[in-house]
């Protein structure tokens, strides 16, 4: 079932967010650290179960699992928003979680919960709307990643910081283009425009994905100076791969054979 693939991907992501948040808290914030650990274990458990289920599992059992996971996603979202509030009100001075990073991870939790809700209730958006909305979501995510990388690299890594800044600018531009396209709905939702939109986004996502892969390898080999956790480098790389897979799936739906239940199948991976 499609929701299993979403859960396998995003529960690992949520688990890692818990770890990143924990690492950014101060030692004295023991309650927050405990709460982060709590979510780590919850999503680790969910991840394990999602790999134990298969297409042969009783659909009713999967549906119940989806509901349970969606509730866990709602809870970690609330935790992240609470942390964001604390940081913004300067209640955690000296902590190392950027407000934008916490907001970003809460948007991913919200996306995860919405996806599960859509899949569970069968209320999927029509393809042209899904193409625009998913791209707006992921382009902003990619733009944020470029900004995080730029700010967590050591300032002396001038070339890499510069590259990260260029990616940030590139994705900000793509995001605004996507918002413009969205504003011109439904007139803008022609096949040629949507096809070009996907092609253009893909080019930049491939470049960013490759940059993240290089950064990840350099960080793992301890070849560059930064305060980026190797797992965070891999995490943002995987999210770019996810976006690419979604773009390719949309492209296939647009150009492929749209006769058989496209609406139901268009995000079926
Ligand atoms: Fe993430
Ligand atoms: Fe992310």
TrEMBL record:
Lineage: Bacteria, Bacillati, Bacillota, Bacilli, Bacillales
Protein name: DUF2935 domain-containing protein
Pfam families: DUF2935
Native source organism of the sequence: Paenibacillus oryzisoli
Superkingdom, taxonomy of origin: Bacteria
Gene3D superfamilies linked: Protein of unknown function DUF2935
């Amino acid at each position: 079932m499609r929701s299993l693939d979403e859960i396998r991907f995003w529960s690992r992501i949520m688990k890692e967010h818990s770890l990143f948040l924990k690492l950014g808290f101060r030692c004295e914030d023991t309650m927050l650290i405990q709460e982060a650990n709590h979510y780590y274990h919850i999503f680790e458990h969910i991840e394990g179960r999602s790999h134990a289920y298969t297409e042969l599992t009783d659909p009713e059992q999967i549906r119940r699992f989806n509901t349970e996971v969606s509730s866990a996603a709602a809870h970690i979202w609330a935790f992240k928003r609470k942390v964001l509030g604390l940081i913004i009100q300067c209640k955690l001075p000296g902590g190392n979680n950027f407000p934008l990073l916490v907001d970003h991870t809460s948007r991913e939790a919200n996306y995860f919960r919405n996806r599960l809700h859509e899949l569970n209730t069968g209320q999927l958006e029509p393809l042209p709307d899904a193409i625009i909305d998913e791209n707006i979501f992921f382009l902003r995510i990619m733009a944020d990643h470029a900004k995080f990388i730029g700010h967590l690299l050591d300032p002396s890594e001038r070339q890499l910081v510069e590259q990260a800044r260029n990616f940030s600018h590139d994705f900000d531009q793509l995001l605004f283009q996507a918002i413009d396209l969205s504003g011109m709905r439904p007139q803008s939702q022609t096949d040629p425009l949507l096809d070009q939109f996907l092609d253009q986004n893909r080019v930049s996502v491939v470049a960013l994905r490759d940059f993240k892969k290089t950064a990840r390898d350099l960080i793992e080999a301890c070849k560059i100076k930064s305060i980026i956790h190797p797992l965070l480098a891999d995490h943002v790389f995987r999210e770019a791969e996810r976006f690419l897979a979604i773009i390719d799936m949309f492209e296939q739906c647009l150009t492929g054979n749209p006769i058989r239940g496209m609406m139901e199948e268009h995000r079926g991976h």
